[in-house]
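BUG: 3D viewer hangs when loading the predicted structure for this chain

Environment: internal workstation, default settings.
Expected: structure renders.
Actual: progress bar stalls at 90%.

Input used:
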Amino acid sequence: MRGAAILLLLLGACGDTVDTTGLPPLDGYRDWAAFEFTGEVPGHGSGRRVVYVNDVGRMYGHAGRYRPGTVIVKDIFEAEDGTGEPDYISVMRKIAGDDPAAEGLPLDGGWLFTLIEDGDEVYYDFCWARCHQAATYDGAWYDYGAP
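Structure tokens produced before the viewer hung:
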């Protein structure tokens, strides 16, 4: 738990609020396809994570690139048996470079990485630079495409 708190403190020191107007929405994300994980994961501690993937992300072809419009949302709980509201929420949005809504956004490998803090989405370069650039599935650690 202490490690996650330290991570959030470090992240809080470098985030910039992002204007999400025109970006793929998060509305109703807890109704999307869900995947649950527990155990140690760098950047997310050893608690419970529920990962939600929108319909665009579910069209992933099991190789290559996720399609622009893919949204992956992670509810992250510090405890493995975490229930109720998550300790924090992280978001990955795949955005086409020529999308007018992408202008001026800090895209990493075509992804915008944010955390939801006090109702705002805040960008962190930490996610891509320290972890997701090495991920097996185009910046994601799992293949979220439909079977």
